[in-house]
What does this fold into?
Amino acid sequence: MKGRLLHLIARTRDSFWFVPGLFVIGSIVLAELVVLLDRLAPVPAWAGGLILEVGADGARGLLTAISGSMLGAAATMFSITIAVLALTSSNYGPRLVRNFMADRGNQVVLGGLVSIALYALIVVRHIRIEDVDSSSFVPHLAVNLAVVLLVAGIGLLVYFIHHIASDIQVSTLSAAVRGELIRRLDEQFPLDAEAEVVPSREWIDSSGRPVRAGRDGYVGAIAADDLIEAARRHDVRIDVVVQPGTYVVEGDLLATVEGSKRTGDDAAGDRAIVSAVRTAVALEDARTPYQDLEHLVRQLIDLAVRALSPGTNDPLTAINALDDLSAALAHGISRPDPPRVLVDADGDVRVRVVRRRVCDLTTDALDLLRPYAISHSAVVCRAILLVHRVVERAPDAARPMLLAAADRLVDDFTASSPAAYDLAQVRAARADTGVTL
It folds into this structure.
Protein backbone atom coordinates (compact mmCIF):
# COMPACT_ATOMS: atom_id res chain seq x y z
CA MET A 1 0.00 0.00 0.00
CA LYS A 2 3.01 2.28 0.28
CA GLY A 3 3.07 3.25 -3.41
CA ARG A 4 -0.67 3.88 -3.50
CA LEU A 5 -0.44 5.96 -0.31
CA LEU A 6 2.36 8.10 -1.76
CA HIS A 7 0.24 8.76 -4.86
CA LEU A 8 -2.71 9.85 -2.72
CA ILE A 9 -0.45 12.12 -0.66
CA ALA A 10 0.91 13.73 -3.84
CA ARG A 11 -2.62 14.35 -5.15
CA THR A 12 -3.75 15.79 -1.83
CA ARG A 13 -0.70 18.05 -1.55
CA ASP A 14 -1.38 19.54 -5.00
CA SER A 15 -5.10 20.05 -4.45
CA PHE A 16 -6.41 23.60 -4.21
CA TRP A 17 -7.82 23.13 -0.70
CA PHE A 18 -4.92 21.41 1.08
CA VAL A 19 -2.69 24.41 1.89
CA PRO A 20 -5.65 26.71 2.73
CA GLY A 21 -6.93 23.96 5.01
CA LEU A 22 -3.61 23.87 6.86
CA PHE A 23 -3.68 27.66 7.19
CA VAL A 24 -7.22 27.55 8.64
CA ILE A 25 -6.25 24.94 11.21
CA GLY A 26 -3.15 26.95 12.08
CA SER A 27 -5.17 30.14 12.58
CA ILE A 28 -7.52 28.40 15.01
CA VAL A 29 -4.63 27.02 17.03
CA LEU A 30 -2.78 30.35 16.96
CA ALA A 31 -5.82 32.32 18.13
CA GLU A 32 -6.45 30.01 21.06
CA LEU A 33 -2.79 29.99 22.11
CA VAL A 34 -2.39 33.76 21.97
CA VAL A 35 -5.61 34.31 23.92
CA LEU A 36 -4.42 31.78 26.50
CA LEU A 37 -1.14 33.70 26.76
CA ASP A 38 -3.12 36.89 27.32
CA ARG A 39 -4.97 35.23 30.21
CA LEU A 40 -1.85 33.80 31.83
CA ALA A 41 0.48 36.78 31.32
CA PRO A 42 -1.21 40.20 31.13
CA VAL A 43 0.59 42.96 29.27
CA PRO A 44 3.37 44.35 31.52
CA ALA A 45 3.53 48.06 32.23
CA TRP A 46 6.80 48.53 30.32
CA ALA A 47 5.18 47.19 27.15
CA GLY A 48 2.31 49.64 27.25
CA GLY A 49 3.94 51.88 24.65
CA LEU A 50 4.50 48.99 22.27
CA ILE A 51 1.13 47.25 22.46
CA LEU A 52 -2.09 49.06 21.60
CA GLU A 53 -4.66 48.73 24.37
CA VAL A 54 -8.27 49.43 23.53
CA GLY A 55 -11.53 48.77 25.28
CA ALA A 56 -13.81 45.83 24.66
CA ASP A 57 -16.01 47.72 22.18
CA GLY A 58 -12.99 49.10 20.33
CA ALA A 59 -11.36 45.66 20.12
CA ARG A 60 -14.55 44.11 18.79
CA GLY A 61 -14.93 46.81 16.16
CA LEU A 62 -11.30 46.51 15.09
CA LEU A 63 -11.40 42.72 14.82
CA THR A 64 -14.72 42.79 12.97
CA ALA A 65 -13.28 45.26 10.44
CA ILE A 66 -10.18 43.10 9.96
CA SER A 67 -12.25 39.99 9.45
CA GLY A 68 -14.59 41.67 6.97
CA SER A 69 -11.76 43.23 4.95
CA MET A 70 -9.83 39.95 4.72
CA LEU A 71 -12.92 38.04 3.62
CA GLY A 72 -13.54 40.70 0.99
CA ALA A 73 -9.94 40.41 -0.20
CA ALA A 74 -10.30 36.61 -0.32
CA ALA A 75 -13.49 36.93 -2.38
CA THR A 76 -11.71 39.30 -4.78
CA MET A 77 -8.78 36.92 -5.06
CA PHE A 78 -11.13 34.00 -5.72
CA SER A 79 -12.98 35.95 -8.43
CA ILE A 80 -9.71 36.84 -10.16
CA THR A 81 -8.61 33.20 -9.98
CA ILE A 82 -11.85 31.96 -11.57
CA ALA A 83 -11.49 34.54 -14.35
CA VAL A 84 -7.90 33.47 -14.99
CA LEU A 85 -8.91 29.79 -15.05
CA ALA A 86 -11.57 30.55 -17.66
CA LEU A 87 -9.07 32.55 -19.72
CA THR A 88 -6.45 29.81 -19.49
CA SER A 89 -8.90 27.06 -20.41
CA SER A 90 -10.16 28.88 -23.50
CA ASN A 91 -6.85 30.30 -24.76
CA TYR A 92 -4.22 27.78 -23.71
CA GLY A 93 -6.16 24.57 -23.20
CA PRO A 94 -8.06 22.97 -20.31
CA ARG A 95 -5.12 20.69 -19.46
CA LEU A 96 -3.21 23.69 -18.12
CA VAL A 97 -5.92 24.60 -15.61
CA ARG A 98 -4.46 22.14 -13.10
CA ASN A 99 -1.22 24.16 -13.07
CA PHE A 100 -3.09 27.12 -11.57
CA MET A 101 -4.99 24.92 -9.13
CA ALA A 102 -1.73 23.35 -7.91
CA ASP A 103 0.20 26.64 -7.84
CA ARG A 104 1.56 26.99 -4.34
CA GLY A 105 1.53 30.81 -4.42
CA ASN A 106 -2.20 30.95 -5.15
CA GLN A 107 -2.91 28.42 -2.41
CA VAL A 108 -0.85 30.35 0.16
CA VAL A 109 -2.60 33.65 -0.62
CA LEU A 110 -6.09 32.14 -0.38
CA GLY A 111 -5.20 30.30 2.81
CA GLY A 112 -3.55 33.36 4.33
CA LEU A 113 -6.47 35.71 3.70
CA VAL A 114 -9.12 33.28 4.93
CA SER A 115 -7.11 32.29 8.00
CA ILE A 116 -6.56 35.94 9.04
CA ALA A 117 -10.30 36.54 8.88
CA LEU A 118 -10.97 33.40 10.90
CA TYR A 119 -8.32 34.36 13.46
CA ALA A 120 -10.02 37.72 14.03
CA LEU A 121 -13.43 36.06 14.46
CA ILE A 122 -12.09 33.56 16.99
CA VAL A 123 -10.44 36.29 19.04
CA VAL A 124 -13.70 38.32 19.06
CA ARG A 125 -15.56 35.53 20.83
CA HIS A 126 -13.15 35.73 23.77
CA ILE A 127 -13.78 39.43 24.48
CA ARG A 128 -16.04 39.97 27.48
CA ILE A 129 -17.64 43.17 28.74
CA GLU A 130 -17.79 43.61 32.52
CA ASP A 131 -21.17 42.78 34.05
CA VAL A 132 -22.48 41.77 37.45
CA ASP A 133 -21.27 38.18 37.04
CA SER A 134 -17.84 38.64 35.53
CA SER A 135 -15.10 41.14 34.88
CA SER A 136 -14.16 42.40 31.43
CA PHE A 137 -11.46 40.68 29.39
CA VAL A 138 -9.72 42.04 26.28
CA PRO A 139 -6.87 39.93 24.82
CA HIS A 140 -4.64 42.88 23.92
CA LEU A 141 -1.80 40.73 22.60
CA ALA A 142 -4.18 38.83 20.31
CA VAL A 143 -5.72 42.08 19.06
CA ASN A 144 -2.31 43.56 18.25
CA LEU A 145 -1.31 40.36 16.45
CA ALA A 146 -4.48 40.70 14.37
CA VAL A 147 -3.29 44.14 13.24
CA VAL A 148 0.08 42.65 12.25
CA LEU A 149 -1.70 39.90 10.34
CA LEU A 150 -3.81 42.54 8.59
CA VAL A 151 -0.64 44.16 7.26
CA ALA A 152 0.59 40.72 6.15
CA GLY A 153 -2.74 40.13 4.41
CA ILE A 154 -2.39 43.37 2.44
CA GLY A 155 1.08 42.20 1.40
CA LEU A 156 -0.37 38.85 0.29
CA LEU A 157 -2.94 40.60 -1.88
CA VAL A 158 -0.28 42.76 -3.55
CA TYR A 159 1.85 39.65 -4.11
CA PHE A 160 -1.12 37.79 -5.62
CA ILE A 161 -1.80 40.51 -8.18
CA HIS A 162 1.85 40.42 -9.27
CA HIS A 163 1.94 36.61 -9.21
CA ILE A 164 -1.21 36.08 -11.25
CA ALA A 165 -0.11 38.64 -13.84
CA SER A 166 3.13 36.70 -14.23
CA ASP A 167 1.42 33.30 -14.29
CA ILE A 168 -0.80 34.05 -17.30
CA GLN A 169 2.19 34.84 -19.51
CA VAL A 170 2.87 32.14 -22.07
CA SER A 171 6.55 31.88 -21.18
CA THR A 172 5.71 31.28 -17.51
CA LEU A 173 3.10 28.64 -18.33
CA SER A 174 5.45 26.83 -20.69
CA ALA A 175 8.40 26.99 -18.31
CA ALA A 176 6.28 25.59 -15.46
CA VAL A 177 5.32 22.54 -17.54
CA ARG A 178 8.93 22.11 -18.64
CA GLY A 179 10.11 22.14 -15.03
CA GLU A 180 7.55 19.58 -13.94
CA LEU A 181 8.32 17.35 -16.93
CA ILE A 182 12.02 17.38 -16.06
CA ARG A 183 11.25 16.48 -12.44
CA ARG A 184 9.03 13.58 -13.50
CA LEU A 185 11.65 12.36 -15.97
CA ASP A 186 14.24 12.36 -13.18
CA GLU A 187 11.87 10.34 -10.99
CA GLN A 188 10.99 7.73 -13.61
CA PHE A 189 14.37 7.52 -15.36
CA PRO A 190 16.86 7.48 -12.48
CA LEU A 191 20.55 7.56 -13.32
CA ASP A 192 21.14 4.48 -11.19
CA ALA A 193 18.49 2.37 -12.93
CA GLU A 194 19.41 -1.30 -13.09
CA ALA A 195 19.89 -3.08 -16.38
CA GLU A 196 16.95 -4.91 -17.95
CA VAL A 197 16.32 -8.29 -16.39
CA VAL A 198 15.59 -11.05 -18.93
CA PRO A 199 13.50 -13.89 -17.46
CA SER A 200 15.04 -17.33 -17.79
CA ARG A 201 11.80 -18.85 -19.03
CA GLU A 202 8.66 -17.79 -20.86
CA TRP A 203 7.15 -14.90 -19.00
CA ILE A 204 3.46 -15.56 -19.32
CA ASP A 205 1.55 -18.55 -20.66
CA SER A 206 -1.97 -19.28 -21.81
CA SER A 207 -3.05 -20.06 -18.25
CA GLY A 208 -2.48 -16.51 -17.06
CA ARG A 209 -5.53 -15.33 -15.13
CA PRO A 210 -6.91 -11.93 -16.21
CA VAL A 211 -7.43 -9.03 -13.81
CA ARG A 212 -9.97 -6.59 -15.21
CA ALA A 213 -10.83 -3.00 -14.37
CA GLY A 214 -13.57 -2.51 -11.81
CA ARG A 215 -14.57 0.90 -13.17
CA ASP A 216 -13.93 3.36 -15.98
CA GLY A 217 -11.11 5.88 -15.86
CA TYR A 218 -7.56 6.84 -16.74
CA VAL A 219 -4.66 4.94 -15.24
CA GLY A 220 -3.18 7.63 -13.00
CA ALA A 221 -0.35 5.71 -11.39
CA ILE A 222 0.95 2.18 -10.98
CA ALA A 223 2.45 1.32 -7.60
CA ALA A 224 5.17 -1.09 -8.78
CA ASP A 225 6.48 -1.73 -5.25
CA ASP A 226 3.02 -2.74 -4.09
CA LEU A 227 2.68 -5.11 -7.04
CA ILE A 228 6.05 -6.72 -6.30
CA GLU A 229 5.07 -7.22 -2.67
CA ALA A 230 1.68 -8.67 -3.63
CA ALA A 231 3.28 -11.00 -6.19
CA ARG A 232 5.83 -12.18 -3.63
CA ARG A 233 3.19 -12.69 -0.95
CA HIS A 234 0.95 -14.78 -3.24
CA ASP A 235 3.89 -16.39 -5.07
CA VAL A 236 2.73 -15.28 -8.53
CA ARG A 237 3.97 -13.13 -11.39
CA ILE A 238 2.00 -10.14 -12.63
CA ASP A 239 2.09 -8.81 -16.18
CA VAL A 240 0.63 -5.28 -16.24
CA VAL A 241 -0.66 -4.48 -19.73
CA VAL A 242 -1.68 -0.84 -19.14
CA GLN A 243 0.42 2.21 -18.39
CA PRO A 244 -0.20 5.66 -16.85
CA GLY A 245 -2.43 7.62 -19.23
CA THR A 246 -4.28 4.58 -20.60
CA TYR A 247 -8.06 4.91 -20.57
CA VAL A 248 -9.91 1.78 -19.55
CA VAL A 249 -13.58 0.96 -19.24
CA GLU A 250 -15.04 -1.45 -16.74
CA GLY A 251 -14.04 -4.97 -17.70
CA ASP A 252 -10.92 -4.02 -19.69
CA LEU A 253 -7.80 -6.05 -19.01
CA LEU A 254 -5.41 -4.48 -16.49
CA ALA A 255 -3.00 -7.35 -15.94
CA THR A 256 -2.58 -11.10 -16.14
CA VAL A 257 -1.42 -13.25 -13.24
CA GLU A 258 0.58 -16.44 -13.63
CA GLY A 259 0.97 -18.87 -10.73
CA SER A 260 4.47 -20.02 -9.89
CA LYS A 261 5.00 -22.69 -7.25
CA ARG A 262 1.31 -23.20 -6.65
CA THR A 263 -1.59 -23.55 -9.03
CA GLY A 264 -3.40 -20.55 -7.63
CA ASP A 265 -6.79 -22.26 -7.73
CA ASP A 266 -7.67 -21.04 -4.26
CA ALA A 267 -10.66 -18.67 -4.63
CA ALA A 268 -9.70 -16.51 -1.65
CA GLY A 269 -6.16 -16.17 -2.99
CA ASP A 270 -7.50 -15.16 -6.41
CA ARG A 271 -9.72 -12.50 -4.88
CA ALA A 272 -6.84 -11.17 -2.84
CA ILE A 273 -4.48 -10.82 -5.79
CA VAL A 274 -7.21 -9.22 -7.94
CA SER A 275 -7.87 -6.71 -5.17
CA ALA A 276 -4.13 -6.02 -4.78
CA VAL A 277 -3.69 -5.35 -8.52
CA ARG A 278 -6.74 -3.10 -8.71
CA THR A 279 -5.52 -1.15 -5.69
CA ALA A 280 -2.00 -0.75 -7.13
CA VAL A 281 -3.31 0.41 -10.53
CA ALA A 282 -4.95 3.72 -9.59
CA LEU A 283 -7.80 4.84 -11.86
CA GLU A 284 -8.65 8.55 -12.05
CA ASP A 285 -11.39 10.58 -13.72
CA ALA A 286 -8.76 12.72 -15.50
CA ARG A 287 -5.13 12.33 -16.50
CA THR A 288 -2.58 13.35 -13.88
CA PRO A 289 1.12 14.22 -14.26
CA TYR A 290 2.57 12.13 -11.44
CA GLN A 291 3.55 9.18 -13.66
CA ASP A 292 1.91 10.13 -16.96
CA LEU A 293 4.76 11.79 -18.87
CA GLU A 294 2.74 11.85 -22.08
CA HIS A 295 0.19 14.08 -20.37
CA LEU A 296 2.87 16.69 -19.61
CA VAL A 297 4.28 16.50 -23.14
CA ARG A 298 0.82 17.00 -24.57
CA GLN A 299 0.28 20.08 -22.44
CA LEU A 300 3.11 21.78 -24.36
CA ILE A 301 1.91 20.38 -27.68
CA ASP A 302 -1.62 21.58 -26.88
CA LEU A 303 -0.21 25.05 -26.21
CA ALA A 304 1.58 24.99 -29.58
CA VAL A 305 -1.42 23.62 -31.50
CA ARG A 306 -3.80 26.25 -30.11
CA ALA A 307 -1.30 28.97 -30.97
CA LEU A 308 -1.19 27.71 -34.57
CA SER A 309 -4.98 27.66 -35.00
CA PRO A 310 -6.34 30.08 -37.63
CA GLY A 311 -8.16 32.08 -34.95
CA THR A 312 -4.95 32.71 -33.02
CA ASN A 313 -2.16 32.40 -35.62
CA ASP A 314 0.67 32.92 -33.12
CA PRO A 315 3.69 30.86 -34.25
CA LEU A 316 5.95 32.55 -31.69
CA THR A 317 4.00 30.95 -28.85
CA ALA A 318 4.32 27.59 -30.57
CA ILE A 319 8.07 28.11 -30.87
CA ASN A 320 8.24 28.95 -27.16
CA ALA A 321 6.45 25.71 -26.31
CA LEU A 322 8.74 23.67 -28.58
CA ASP A 323 11.84 25.21 -27.02
CA ASP A 324 10.71 24.20 -23.53
CA LEU A 325 9.74 20.74 -24.78
CA SER A 326 13.15 20.28 -26.41
CA ALA A 327 14.89 21.22 -23.15
CA ALA A 328 12.95 18.59 -21.19
CA LEU A 329 13.25 15.80 -23.78
CA ALA A 330 16.97 16.46 -24.36
CA HIS A 331 17.41 16.19 -20.60
CA GLY A 332 15.57 12.87 -20.41
CA ILE A 333 16.83 11.08 -23.54
CA SER A 334 20.31 10.50 -22.14
CA ARG A 335 19.02 8.84 -18.98
CA PRO A 336 18.92 5.02 -18.94
CA ASP A 337 15.60 3.30 -19.50
CA PRO A 338 14.39 1.67 -16.27
CA PRO A 339 13.76 -2.09 -16.43
CA ARG A 340 10.39 -3.39 -17.51
CA VAL A 341 10.84 -6.68 -15.64
CA LEU A 342 11.00 -6.21 -11.88
CA VAL A 343 12.29 -8.59 -9.22
CA ASP A 344 11.74 -8.88 -5.49
CA ALA A 345 14.35 -8.72 -2.74
CA ASP A 346 15.30 -12.37 -3.37
CA GLY A 347 15.91 -11.76 -7.07
CA ASP A 348 12.81 -13.63 -8.23
CA VAL A 349 11.02 -12.24 -11.28
CA ARG A 350 7.69 -10.85 -10.08
CA VAL A 351 6.27 -8.02 -12.21
CA ARG A 352 6.45 -6.77 -15.78
CA VAL A 353 5.25 -3.27 -16.64
CA VAL A 354 4.83 -1.23 -19.81
CA ARG A 355 7.19 1.73 -19.98
CA ARG A 356 7.34 4.46 -22.59
CA ARG A 357 10.76 5.65 -23.68
CA VAL A 358 11.66 9.28 -24.16
CA CYS A 359 12.14 8.68 -27.88
CA ASP A 360 8.53 7.44 -28.05
CA LEU A 361 7.33 10.61 -26.34
CA THR A 362 9.33 12.70 -28.82
CA THR A 363 8.01 11.02 -31.97
CA ASP A 364 4.42 11.09 -30.71
CA ALA A 365 4.71 14.80 -29.94
CA LEU A 366 6.04 15.56 -33.42
CA ASP A 367 3.35 13.48 -35.10
CA LEU A 368 0.64 15.31 -33.16
CA LEU A 369 2.09 18.69 -34.06
CA ARG A 370 2.79 17.90 -37.73
CA PRO A 371 -0.65 18.65 -39.29
CA TYR A 372 -0.72 22.08 -37.64
CA ALA A 373 2.92 23.08 -38.05
CA ILE A 374 3.30 22.58 -41.81
CA SER A 375 1.75 25.97 -42.57
CA HIS A 376 4.55 27.75 -40.67
CA SER A 377 8.11 27.19 -41.81
CA ALA A 378 9.57 28.72 -38.64
CA VAL A 379 7.67 26.23 -36.47
CA VAL A 380 8.77 23.32 -38.67
CA CYS A 381 12.39 24.44 -38.38
CA ARG A 382 12.09 24.68 -34.61
CA ALA A 383 10.52 21.21 -34.43
CA ILE A 384 13.45 19.86 -36.45
CA LEU A 385 15.81 21.64 -34.06
CA LEU A 386 14.05 19.78 -31.24
CA VAL A 387 14.88 16.51 -33.01
CA HIS A 388 18.46 17.63 -33.49
CA ARG A 389 18.88 18.37 -29.78
CA VAL A 390 17.39 15.04 -28.79
CA VAL A 391 19.29 13.01 -31.40
CA GLU A 392 22.60 14.47 -30.26
CA ARG A 393 22.05 13.00 -26.81
CA ALA A 394 20.13 9.85 -27.76
CA PRO A 395 21.58 6.33 -27.85
CA ASP A 396 22.25 4.96 -31.33
CA ALA A 397 19.27 2.58 -31.21
CA ALA A 398 16.80 5.46 -30.77
CA ARG A 399 18.11 7.71 -33.52
CA PRO A 400 16.39 6.10 -36.56
CA MET A 401 12.87 6.58 -35.20
CA LEU A 402 13.62 10.18 -34.17
CA LEU A 403 14.99 11.06 -37.59
CA ALA A 404 12.07 9.30 -39.27
CA ALA A 405 9.70 11.61 -37.38
CA ALA A 406 11.69 14.62 -38.62
CA ASP A 407 11.54 13.32 -42.18
CA ARG A 408 7.77 12.88 -41.98
CA LEU A 409 7.55 16.51 -40.91
CA VAL A 410 9.70 17.62 -43.85
CA ASP A 411 7.74 15.47 -46.31
CA ASP A 412 4.38 16.89 -45.21
CA PHE A 413 5.75 20.42 -45.34
CA THR A 414 7.05 19.79 -48.86
CA ALA A 415 3.66 18.41 -49.93
CA SER A 416 1.94 21.61 -48.76
CA SER A 417 3.52 23.54 -51.69
CA PRO A 418 5.49 26.09 -49.65
CA ALA A 419 7.47 28.98 -51.06
CA ALA A 420 10.89 28.00 -52.38
CA TYR A 421 12.68 30.03 -49.71
CA ASP A 422 10.70 28.38 -46.89
CA LEU A 423 11.35 24.93 -48.31
CA ALA A 424 15.07 25.64 -48.52
CA GLN A 425 15.06 26.77 -44.88
CA VAL A 426 13.34 23.60 -43.73
CA ARG A 427 15.62 21.32 -45.74
CA ALA A 428 18.67 23.14 -44.40
CA ALA A 429 17.38 22.65 -40.84
CA ARG A 430 16.96 18.92 -41.54
CA ALA A 431 20.45 18.71 -43.01
CA ASP A 432 21.86 20.35 -39.87
CA THR A 433 20.99 17.28 -37.85
CA GLY A 434 24.07 15.74 -39.50
CA VAL A 435 22.47 12.30 -39.77
CA THR A 436 20.37 10.72 -42.51
CA LEU A 437 18.43 7.51 -42.53
